[in-house]
């Protein structure tokens, strides 16, 4: 009589659904807003476009608001 085919552990493992791990988030936007209110990072930047025709150097001030990450 015909024999049963041997089980392949890898194939059996692939048949099982993937486990999804979700870590709980302790990030609190209200706490961030209250902690970093009125705190701003200021960066001075230069855009050097002198390599292109009619290019120029432009200076910029970049403000990064910590309270809402903008």
Key terms for this structure?
70 residues, alpha+beta, elongated, flagellum
Short précis:
The chain has 70 residues and is an alpha+beta fold. 20% of the residues lie in helices and 26% in strands. It has a domain at 38-69.
What this model shows, in words?
The chain is elongated, with a radius of gyration of 29 Å. It has helices spanning 9-15, 29-35; strands spanning 40-48, 57-65. It has 70 residues and is α+β, with helices and mostly antiparallel strands. A hairpin with an 8-residue loop joins strand 1 and strand 2 (57-65). It has a domain at 38-69. Strands 1-2 form a two-stranded antiparallel sheet. GO terms for molecular function: alpha-tubulin binding. Residues 37-70 form the DM10 domain. This is EF-hand domain containing 1. It comes from Mustela putorius furo (European domestic ferret). Pfam families: DM10_dom.
Structural class: alpha+beta
Estimate what percentage of residues fall within beta strands: 25-35%
Measured as a percent range, the helix fraction is: 10-25%
Taking the alpha carbons of the first and last residues, their distance comes to 73 Å
Count of helical regions: 2
Task: Give the beta-strand count.
Answer: 2
Radius of gyration: 29 Å
For the biggest β-sheet, the strand order reads 1-2
Tell me the overall shape.
elongated
Keywords: Cell projection, Cilium, Cytoplasm, Cytoskeleton, Flagellum, Repeat
Organism: Mustela putorius furo (European domestic ferret)
GO biological process, one term: mitotic cytokinesis
GO molecular function, one term: alpha-tubulin binding
């Amino acid at each position: 009589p015909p024999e049963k085919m041997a089980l392949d552990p890898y194939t059996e493992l692939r048949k099982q659904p993937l486990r999804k791990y979700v870590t709980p988030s302790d990030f609190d936007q209200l706490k961030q807003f209250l902690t970093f209110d009125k705190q701003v990072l200021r960066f001075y930047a230069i855009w050097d476009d002198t390599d292109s025709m009619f290019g120029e150097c432009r200076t910029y001030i970049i403000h990064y608001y910590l309270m809402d990450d903008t």
